[in-house]
Design a protein that fits this description.
By secondary structure, the chain is α/β, with parallel strands linked by helices. It contains seven helices and ten strands. The protein has helices spanning about 50-55, 80-90, 105-115, 120-135, 150-160, 180-195, 205-210, and strands at about 5-20, 20-35, 40, 65-70, 70-75, 90-95, 165-170, 200-205, 215-220, 225-230. α3 crosses α4 (about 120-135) and α5 runs parallel beside α6 (about 180-195). The model has no long low-confidence stretch (mean pLDDT about 95).
Length: about 240
Amino acid sequence: MATEPLIYIRHLFKRYHMGESDFTALKDITLDFAQGEFTGFVGPSGSGKTTLLNIIGSLDVPSEGEATVLGHAISTLPAKQAAQVRNRHLGFIFQTFNLLPVYTVYENVEFPLLLLGMENKKRRQAVLQALEWVGLTDKLHSRPAQLSGGESQRVAIARAMVKQPKIVLADEPTANLDAENSHHILKTMKKLNRELQTTFIFATHDEKVVTYLDRKITLQDGRVAKDEIMQEDNHA
């Protein structure tokens, strides 16, 4: 029996009211995603990458069509239930690290587990494991202002991965990093993808990111222009 896709999108449209007219950001998108994919939306600014990522993350809803994520229909998902799905099953990584400046690295990574009500001993084990994944166990007492850009993004990855989500959504995660740090971050994410079978979906126009993808979905003017499986990368 075929496995149900993790994410199921059919004939999805997204329109925004702008003055007296509508702007259609996404036009007739149909896509499936399976567990363990390492996929990216690529295309120029305004092509719909972030909008589609936000709908998958239940931060926005379609104007028309179907988007089902982990068995939940995004269009009809109540706000409280959408928040529960995000808290339990989704991780988010952005180009701005969004770390809480008054908290330590440990406390920043711990935060999603506090929202889940995880008991203290399990919480500590999970945080230390996540920091070990990204190579930052020596920084657990540091604050964000004491970190480099690369280290800050690694903390953001640890925070996204600490609850071992089924899906991680990454919006331009290398935009503020140099080439060396970008590759370090991408290798870390690829390693976690393979070891934990977490599905990663990127929105990016960074060619460095593209070289790591297993699948590249090119968006153009809100439509899927191309959906291709990539050659085995050289970054394993």
